[in-house]
Amino acid sequence: MMMQLRHGQQTIPCRRGAPSFTAAGAAAARPVLVLGAAARSRPRKPQPASVCLGQGVSGKSPASASPARAVTDTALGASAAAAVQVGGKLLLQNFAGADNTQLRLSIQLVSATVAGSDGRGVKADAAVLDAVVGSGEAELDVSLAWDETLGAPGAVVVKNHSDFPVYLKLLSVPAGFGADKAAVHFACNGWVYPVDKHPYRLFFTNDACVKEETPSALLKYREDELSLLRGDGESADRAFQPWDRVYDYALYNDLGNPDLRKDLARPVMGGSQEYPYPRRLKTGRPAAKTDPRTETRAPLDEDIYVPCDERVGYGSVPAPTLPPRGGHFGSLADVYKLYGLDDLGRLPDAKAIINSNAPFPIAPRVISVNPTNWRKDEEFARQMIAGANPVCIKRVTKFPLASELDRSVYGDQDSKINRDHVERNMCGMTVQQAMDEGRLYVVDHHDWVMPYLKRINELPGEEEKAEISQRKVYAARTLLFLNHDDSTLKPLAIELSSPHPENEKLGAVSAVYTPPDTEDITAGSFSAWEVAKAHAAANDTVENNFVTHWLNTHAFMEPIVIAANRQMSVLHPIHRLLKPHFRKTLHINAVARQIVVGSGDLRKNGSIFRGIHEFTYFPSKYNMEMSSKAYKAWNFTELALPNDLIKRGVARGDTKKPEELELLIKDYPYAVDGLEMWAAIKKWVTDYCAIYYADDGAVARDSELQAWWREVRDVGHGDLSGAPWWLAMDTLADLVEACTTVVWLGSAYHAAISFGQYDYQGFVPNGPSLTTSPVPDAGKEVTESEFLGSITPVTEALGFMSISSGPMALASSGEVYLGQRPDTEQWTSEQSAAAALAEFRGRLKQVAENIERRNADPELKNRTGPVEAPYTLFKPTAQPGPVIRGIPNSITV
User: Fold this and answer.
1) For 38-59, what is each residue's pLDDT tens digit?
2) Do the Cβ atoms of 436 and 466 come closer than 8 Å?
3) 8 φ, ψ to 5°?
4) 373: in domain
5) How far is residue 203's CA from residue 531's CA, in Å, rounded to a whole number?
6) Is residue 70 part of a domain?
7) Which of 225, 412, 690, 728 would suit a FRET pair with 739, their CA atoms being 20 to 30 Å apart?
8) H or E segment at 680?
């Protein structure tokens, strides 16, 4: 239905329920914003004109502002016509850390409908705002100049004449413009540095439109912003500064530190067939002196460059200080003490939830209720469908298991598990019957680990003996059987393989371990089978961190974020859809390269700091190389959950109807909850995209969207650009599938495979990150001390727990969860989009209720397992309490 809006003497058509920017140059007012429940404004105390109230953590006295006054800014081409004053509210954040700071801004509204001689929208007179602000958040009353002959504003220009940067969140003009006086919101969410750093910042309204529908008066501004973000015209070797806003690409050539020590050099990841990898953000740091291919590393106490708007209220993360390398835990009681538990794994105060006096006050969930049942075979198997890494289990369709490694290089690597090993525990079934009925499964890390085993087991090198522990690692395969009556799994056999000691070409040397006839988890000793389980778990811990976690989320998402900022304006509807799922990702990845995944740096005291991952995970210096090898087989489309489940053989059906997929493991918590979450995300994305794209042609004609996807494929993931599986992005279905997968990987998937790390691997006997001793012969037993002496040592365990416990701090980080937008964001002026988001929140609530219901069902044994820890990693919203759950919108830890 067409509506008529009057502006001056001209009648202009405007569509409601579609982008409010109509044909180029149309002087159309915006529809009234309808907010969903999660986007209501925060209550604020009434305040007099020109006075703001500090809202930050400082709780300081109200800031004051002198009345803004209009001045003519001829340098910006401001209109000389008579102006009226319109009132507004400016919400900002001052991170200067000082109270009573003098702030001076000039603010100019920009016409969306009337262009000057240069084709850009005419600017109104500048209003100058003088205010005294404290640290934290503040809301200021502003009085802005506007000439009604300029129609409706579509942007605002802000200059900072202070001596410190300020973060602008939102500028709202409640009185509005046009015939219906609709409110206007400028969703700033950006830093404004002093004018010697930022000559000006331009922020658009919260309307959304593709480039082809942008009013002509705003089109050049839109292009100007993208050109600035791409760094067009910048020197290729310029070092970026904290106030820069440039998004560009680089190889992973900053992992090593050859200038510090030769053995700390690392291969360049990306740009080669040997080490393909996604691209990272360019920083502009100079090349190393000893290796021009390697970029110098930023000092530990300095921030790595990210565009300034990507760093909001958080800066450098200090490298953790760990005690000197010592030995292993002597007893399980020593491990329990880390969490403030007694010798039996219980809290001294039976009514307490945490022990605040402990180094790690919150015990991992795997021991938080029942501290001994982690040893059970049923729990070991359950964690492969409901633990930290529930995405590697596959249905067995061929037996014996075969390797895909090149026989000319590695010899015979096929599995040595035979029918005699397993059929005695298969309830009278044969292997063939179990395969036919979908009851035989495997978690197989063999081919990924084996090519690096010889080098790993030769660690540490001569120069690093004081820095990392001796390794003794095997390549593991774990075969499992599905019990039909209750959908539980039981392990049948574990195969541990090593390279032939004389020559790798002679094939693998393998040992097969099977469960003992009786299971006794109360014994003070540990069987060889239990040691084999620990080695298999270590393989799983490492693949979880470097493939299913780092590669599939952190590394994958970085070029998605870079390309979106370079090629899609903030006005673009898809940029607006995906923006919440980019929050903090570039920053956390930069921190990771600095102190987590890199080789090492020099502390101020002269000691060497080894990257936490090289110190704590068994591949050490080969961590990132191994993730690069996994990237060779990486496939974006297979990361969509329905496709992944079908590929692994654990589900069958139509991937386009996830709610109808048949799971072969009926009680598969990750898959059951995940499919509900996937369906909810896809419905939200589908509804949103339908608002802005009427048909496939609209997708194909969207130049910014096409440029984004082309750059993701050809540059960001350029080493795989020729892969046949890339979506063509010429249909609405392709757009929905791509955006759904991006949202899924950045939110729900990341939570499921990252936030379980502390819960299951934070108790190192259950999920060790490295192994240091050979497995005893089958049938032998070892003492508790010997068992602990074969897995992660004390200092490495502390390092691992220090990073895997990150989600515990989300409560104090201002985290934004799936389906939420900050109250102050005013993210859209489109009623249909706001309504679709509200519906999405309703579906997420239903998902949470369904998870609670399933967790309470005693028939679903895999929901809690022997350790009595409910599966909650897909619960979307954080719940009150000391342990924070929920799905953040983005990769923030």
Assistant:
1) 222 233 333 333 323 222 223 3
2) no
3) 65, -130
4) no
5) 59
6) yes
7) 225
8) helix 669-692
**Whole-number Cα distances in Å, 794 to 319, 338, 542, 603:** 18, 10, 18, 22
Which position has the token pair 């009573």?
A: 100
- Residues sharing a CB contact under 8 Å with residue 736, sequence separation 6 or more, in sequence order: 682, 685, 686, 689
Q: What is the largest CA-CA distance in the chain?
A: 94
Residue in 125, 147, 119 with CA at minimum distance from that of residue 223: 119
pLDDT tens digit string along 607-636?
A: 889 999 999 999 999 999 999 999 999 999
The CATH number of whichever domain residue 114 belongs to comes to 2.60.60.20
Strand, helix or coil at 253? Answer: coil
The rounded distance, in Å, linking the Cα atoms of 621 and 385 is 30
Q: Can you tell me the distance from the alpha carbon of 255 to that of 889, in angstroms, rounded to the nearest whole number?
A: 28
Query: CB neighbours (10 Å) of residue 752?
Result: 27
* 281 within domain boundaries: no
Closest by CA to 599, choosing from 253, 128, 229, 123, is 253
Predicted pLDDT at 4: 28
Query: Tell me, what's the pLDDT at 45?
Result: 34
C-beta neighbour count of 57 within 10 angstroms:
10
- For the four alpha carbons of 316, 801, 792 and 795, in that order, the dihedral sign comes to positive
How far from 146 is each of 83, 126, 171, 351, CA to CA, in Å? 5, 9, 15, 63
Q: What is the pLDDT of residues 405-427, one digit of tens each?
A: 999 999 999 999 999 999 999 99
DSSP H/E element including 508: strand 508-513
CA 532: distance to chain centroid? 32
Positive or negative CA dihedral for 635, 637, 638, 641? positive
Query: Which amino acid makes up residue 313?
Result: G
Domain membership of residue 116 as a residue range: 28-207
Partners of residue 205 on adjacent β-strands: 186
- Give the confidence band of 79 by pLDDT, cuts at 50, 70, 90: very low
Sequence-distant (6+) residues with CB within 8 A of 205 are 30, 112, 153, 154, 155, 184, 185, 186, 187, 829
- Number of Cβ within a 10 Å radius of residue 539: 28
Within a domain: 135: yes
- Span 778-785, mean pLDDT? 95
